[in-house]
Amino acid sequence: MLPWAVLWDMDGTLVDTAELHFAAWRECCNQQGRDFTEADFQATFGRRNPEILRFLLGDHLTDEEVARLGEAKEQIYRTQSRKTGIELLPGARKLLVAARDHGAVQAIGSSAPRGNLDMILELTGIGEFFTCTVGMEDTTRGKPDPQVFLIGAQRLHVPPQRCVVMEDAVAGIQAATAGGMQSVAVRHVGHHPAEALKAAGASLVVECLTELDGPNLVSLVLH
Ligand SMILES: [Mg+2]
Fold first, then answer.
1. Which sequence spans correspond to the domains of the chain?
2. What separation in Å is there between the alpha carbon of 172 and the centre of ligand 1?
3. Mean predicted confidence (pLDDT) in 57-79
4. Residues 186, 13: contact at Cβ < 8 Å?
5. Does residue 1 surpass a pLDDT of 90?
6. How confident is the model at residue 48 (pLDDT cuts 50, 70, 90)?
7. Which of 65, 67, 85, 210 has the CA that lies 20 to 30 A from 201?
8. Ligand 1 center to residue 15 CA distance, Å?
9. pTM: predicted TM-score of the whole model, two decimal places
10. Are 9 and 167 in contact (CB under 8 A)?
11. Considering the chain, what is the average pLDDT of its residues?
12. Tens of pLDDT along 160-204?
């Protein structure tokens, strides 16, 4: 079989870190004298920190301020994550094993900073499945731009049309579609309606990773 790949989004797809991120953003914003609401969270979730911080605190922020505030927020997030612990969503480990056993090479394609990705791989013990991780520092444009997934495909030496992207967010599915890739939308965490995910170009929409197996994923790249 020709090489094929699975490119995994992290937050909302492999793990559910929404509450931890919400709390960390709220604390970060409060320190800057600003509230952080559910609406702010909805508007920013899944985006890269530079875009989020300028959305929340204003376009006047310098690159240095963005870097400092972003790191401060991630420190809060990582400290709390280590205290609470992070668990894989149902079916995640089994599907990582199944994809590997069916010959896939796998990578992470995430908006998150490298420190967060490394921490989650460590806390969940799934680092062995990934040939590489692509995160915030590797990209200049966030999803729905396909950059994060195209870099992942390139590093895995697999053409985009033989890549399956696993995602929970509309912007992530749009990124996969724009990159010429197949995609599976997982609604477990459920921030996005199935119709919107389909409209964004998802090849398949499932409620939970437990609905999938190796042959399901392979079938998406056999064309
Ligand atoms: Mg996500």
1. 4-16+87-221, 18-84
2. 7
3. 96
4. yes
5. no
6. confident
7. 210
8. 9
9. 0.91
10. yes
11. 95
12. 999 999 999 999 999 999 999 999 999 988 778 999 999 999 999
Q: Is 36 left (phi over 0), alpha (psi -120 to 50) or beta?
A: beta
CA of 176 to the centre of ligand 1 (A): 13
168 Cα–ligand 1 center, Å: 5
Cβ neighbours, 10 Å, residue 183: 27
Span from the CA of 171 to the centroid of ligand 1 (angstroms): 9
pLDDT level of residue 45 (50, 70, 90 thresholds): confident
The residue assigned the tokens 């970060």 is: 28
Which of the listed CATH numbers 3.40.50.1000, 3.40.470.10, 3.10.290.10, 2.40.50.100 matches domain 4-16+87-221?
3.40.50.1000
d(CA 37, CA 40): 5
18-84 adopts what CATH topology? DNA polymerase; domain 1 (1.10.150)
Closest CA to 205 of 153, 156, 167: 167
12 CA from centroid of ligand 1 (Å) = 4
- 115-132: per-residue pLDDT in tens? 999 999 999 999 999 999
Provide the residues around ligand 1 (an ion) whose CB is within 5 A.
9, 11-12, 168-169
Is a pLDDT exceeding 90 seen at residue 56? yes
- The alpha carbon of 10 and the centre of ligand 1 are apart by a number of angstroms equal to 6
Instruction: Report CA(137)–ligand 1 centroid distance (Å).
Output: 17
Is there a common fold for 4-16+87-221 and 18-84?
no
